[in-house]
Amino acid sequence: MKKAVVILSGGMDSTTAAYIAKNDGYDLVAVHFDYRQRTESRERRAFEAVCDALGVSERYVIDLPFFEAIGASALTDTSIEVPTGGIEEGVPVTYVPFRNGIFLSIAAAIAEKEGAEALFIGVVEEDSSGYPDCREDFIAAMERAIDLGTKEGTKIRIETPLVHLKKEDIVKKAVAEGVPLELTWSCYQGEERACGVCDSCRLRLKGFAKAGIEDPIPYEEAP
């Protein structure tokens, strides 16, 4: 069976990418990163629940404490408040410097070890929060770097099935792929009930509203 490594935070986008890979016939290896993000304990619960639902037994949880030392992001530095006033123009303060580049590098090492031919990541370019490491040209450059930096005979494709979709299209795609959306978690602040007002919650709620589908996770408030 063909094998794929999936970067799985437990959020809606990464979970949808994982289900697309599974439904395309890949045997999955799931990778989750603990980079000291505010909601890691809740994300980890979502990751484990999604892996159970997918029947994934091969799971890696990678500890990356240095992100906290680097800081510069509201997700990893508790002295910086998570913005709740609406989605900002430009790169928001929730951007974690070069996070996806580091994630892809580690996931590529796992893919090389596991003999995987594909690496799935749920980045979204068109309707994202403006993160530069979610752009398609960045992903293409990383794929080229991985090709150059792995042993001869290794060929790992980076698959980004959601990169050109808007959030409402991702919601519809998730439903079509059979994603258990009630298991996913997207909030940057809450761990029992989603806050409803951070960038991630706003994008998620907007997507569900435009798709005409009710979001099954609990919220403290909605914008």
Features:
223 residues, 38% helix, Rossmann fold, alpha/beta, 5 strands
User: Briefly, what CATH class?
Assistant: Alpha Beta
Q: What's the architecture, going by CATH? A: 3-Layer(aba) Sandwich
- Unreliable sequence segments: none
Overall spatial form: globular
Specify the number of helices: 7
Task: List strands and helices in order, with pairings.
Blueprint: E1 3-7, H1 12-23, E2 27-34, H2 40-54, E3 59-63, H3 66-70, H4 99-114, E4 118-120, H5 136-149, E5 157-159, H6 167-176, H7 199-211
Question: What is this entry, summarized?
Answer:
By secondary structure, this protein is an alpha/beta fold.
3D architecture notes:
This protein is of the alpha/beta class and 223 residues long. It has one domain: 3-Layer(aba) Sandwich (Rossmann fold), CATH 3.40.50.620. Helices cover 38% and strands 11% of the residues. The chain contains seven helices and five strands. The protein has helices at residues 12-23, 40-54, 66-70, 99-114, 136-149, 167-176, 199-211; strands spanning 3-7, 27-34, 59-63, 118-120, 157-159. Strand 1 (3-7), helix 1 (12-23) and strand 2 (27-34) form a beta-alpha-beta unit. The chain is globular. The protein starts with a strand and ends in a 12-residue tail after the last helix. The mean pLDDT is 96.
